[in-house]
Amino acid sequence: MLAHEELTSNAYDDIRFLRIILEQMGELLPANLLAECDLSHAHSVLEIGCGTGEWLRAMARQYPDLQCIGIDQDEFQVKVANALAYRDGLYQVAFLAHEINDLPPSLFPEASFDLVHLSFLSRYILTADYPTLARMCAALCRPGGIVCWM
Fold first, then answer.
1. How many other CB atoms are found less than 10 A from the CB of residue 54?
2. pLDDT digits 0-9 by tens, 127-140
3. CA distance 92 to 27
């Protein structure tokens, strides 16, 4: 488990920033999306570019039956995210370190997730790579699943 002192100011900044974003949004997903989908019957969520996992941990608290997986290419942030999930008793949440712009098709089977969530990816990938990532996210969704890219 991570010691409190091990968190860098960058990790603290990311956590504070994402908490502010979540507070300002008021909801974990846009209202029109929530009106279209019923996550109470969902099984699994994937967040790409999860950082320290603030959004995914909030999802897991709101929907405790969801299996939640987060991916980020910053290994330290993934370590922090896993430690915070463990601290919060969110054992249905796991975070993986992997290059976002090079996710292999074998990482997850197609149609594995009810929701694929992406946000703040401009720091990781070029906009020219967005179409490929969008196709991959769509393939990861179950029939009727949703890709939410913010």
1. 22
2. 888 899 999 999 99
3. 21
For residue 54, what are its two tokens?
């603030």
- pTM, to two decimals: 0.81
Cα gap 90→60, rounded to integer Å: 7
Count how many Cα atoms sit within 13 Å of the Cα of residue 77 in the half-sphere of its side chain.
Answer: 22
Over 90: is that where the pLDDT of 112 sits? yes
Tell me if 50 sits within 8 A of 15, measured CB to CB: no
Confidence of residue 4 (pLDDT cuts 50, 70, 90): very low
| 3-state secondary structure string across the chain | CCCHHHCCHHHHHHHHHHHHHHHHHCCCCCHHHHHHCCHHHCCEEEEECCCCCHHHHHHHHHCCCCEEEEEECCHHHHHHHHHHHHHCCCCCEEEEECCHHHCCCCCCCCCCEEEEEECCCCCCCCHHHHHHHHHHHHHHEEEEEEEEEC
Q: Does the pLDDT of residue 141 top 60, yes or no?
A: yes
Residue pair 87/61 in contact (Cβ under 8 Å)? The answer is no
